[in-house]
Each structure stands twice: as structure tokens, then as C-alpha cells.
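Hi all, a correction to my earlier message: I attached the wrong file for HTH hxlR-type domain-containing protein. Here's the right sequence:
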Amino acid sequence: MTTVPLAELPGRPCPIAASLELVGERWALLVVREIVLGSTRFGDIVRGTGAPRDRIAARLKTLEAAGVIGRTAYQQRPERFDYHLTESGRDLVSVLDALLAWGDKHAVAPDDPRRLERYRRLTP
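and the right structure:
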């Protein structure tokens, strides 16, 4: 699992800054969201995030190196994987739920035509 030395962070180093170094990029958290929602294969993760394939490939490698996700081969030729959250990744689910609540209240206009009446929390 990757950690971030606080001494290497610019500005006011703290655990928030260290966390953002590992998972603060937009696509990283959306990859975690997709895995939580049951999309465990590369193509499904790409579709669910709407991100370019190369970005998702890079985020999956970064998240695996950080110990947030793991992968299991389900096909040898060509090599393909199922992705799953590690304990570290599962600990991010409450963070995603907090972002969901904040975004529902502050980031999405009440009259947005694509707004759902109620978003499902990611934690059971």
C-alpha cells in the first residue's frame, strides 16, 4: 500500500492533502464508485465513468498501486481482470456517500431535468 510522507507535500501538509494525492483525481473516485455499484470489468468501468479508456487504465494502475483496489484475472488470452475494493477501498465508500449528499444539496440544481428524486447511498 502506498502512503504519502507529509514532509513531501506542499503548503499545509495534513492527512487530507495526503489522501488527495492518492485518490483526489476525479476519475479515481468515479472508478471506486463504479466498483461499489457492481461494475468490476474494465469496459463496464469505462462506460459508467464516461472517461477515456486510457485514463481509466491509468487510474486502475494507480489505485492498485495505492492499495485501494485489487484485481483477479478471469481470462488469460488476452489477459483480462475483475477489479474489487480492498479494505482501504471499502473505507472510501463513506467518503463517496458524503460527496453524494453534498453534491445533491449543493452541486446539482434543484430544477436539473436529469436530477433523480433520490440517489441511493453506496453503503448498505
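Sorry for the mix-up. The first helix runs from residue 15 to 23.
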